[in-house]
Automatic annotation (TrEMBL):
Pfam families (alphabetical): dCMP_cyt_deam_1
Reported cofactor(s): Zn(2+)
Organism: Desulfovibrio psychrotolerans
GO-annotated biological processes: tRNA wobble adenosine to inosine editing
Quaternary context: Homodimer.
NCBIfam families: PRK10860.1
Domain CMP/dCMP-type deaminase: 22-134
Entries under SUPFAM superfamilies matching the protein: Cytidine deaminase-like (SSF53927)
Gene transcribed to yield this protein: tadA
Keywords: Hydrolase, Metal-binding, tRNA processing, Zinc
EC number, as in UniProt: 3.5.4.33
This protein's name: tRNA-specific adenosine deaminase
CDD domains assigned to the protein according to its UniProt record, in alphabetical order: nucleoside_deaminase (cd01285)
Any one GO molecular function term: zinc ion binding
């Protein structure tokens, strides 16, 4: 029988980047670059990178819901799609998704079905976050796959990237209203 200490040690191993590879903070900075790409398109700046077990990036994505006219074109979904195409398999087992904002319920479902190992997120999402904020979507008992999660990696920087975008958007809307 496995002891609690052994389980905690195994979880700590799973939550650590592959040996000899960058930290989760370094991968989060890559996700923030993806988020900046979304912002350049006029999209909410959320970015994601999928990290393979060897530390290689197997997929990237940035929000493109408006650009692609696709409500499912969240950064996480696009990173999973790219990785699946790259790997030639709808399962991207053992990969870790690093994303700047806590995933929504749709993205949680996609991560479960893709069989990834875990998810690392930056800023919590108190409105629609489905990992820890609004619900614990990864802990639903009917899922046929479990994955670990850790949040708060570069949370302040990720949060500021989003907040600055919305401040600029509100200022632009105010400017347009004053012109009318």
């Amino acid at each position: 029988m496995t002891t609690r200490r052994e389980l905690e040690h195994r979880l700590a191993e799973l939550c650590t980047p592959p040996q000899g590879h960058p930290t989760w903070e370094a991968f989060m900075r890559l996700a923030m670059v993806e988020a900046a790409k979304a912002e350049a398109l006029g999209e909410v700046p959320v970015g994601a990178v999928l990290v393979a077990p060897d530390g290689a990036i197997s997929g990237t994505g940035c929000n493109r819901t408006i650009t692609d006219r696709d409500p499912t074109a969240h950064a996480e979904i696009l990173a999973l799609r790219e990785a699946a195409r790259t790997l030639g398999n709808h399962r991207v087992e053992d990969a870790v998704l690093v994303v700047t904002l806590e995933p929504c319920l749709m993205c949680v479902g996609a991560m479960v079905h893709a069989r990834i190992r875990g998810v690392v997120f930056g800023a919590a999402d108190p409105k629609t976050g489905a990992v820890v904020s609004r619900m614990r979507g990864l802990e639903l008992d009917f899922h046929n796959h479990a994955l670990w999660h850790t949040g708060g990696v570069l949370a302040e920087e990720c949060s500021e990237q989003l907040s600055a975008f919305f401040r600029r958007r509100r200022a632009e809307q105010d400017r347009l209203k004053r012109k009318e």
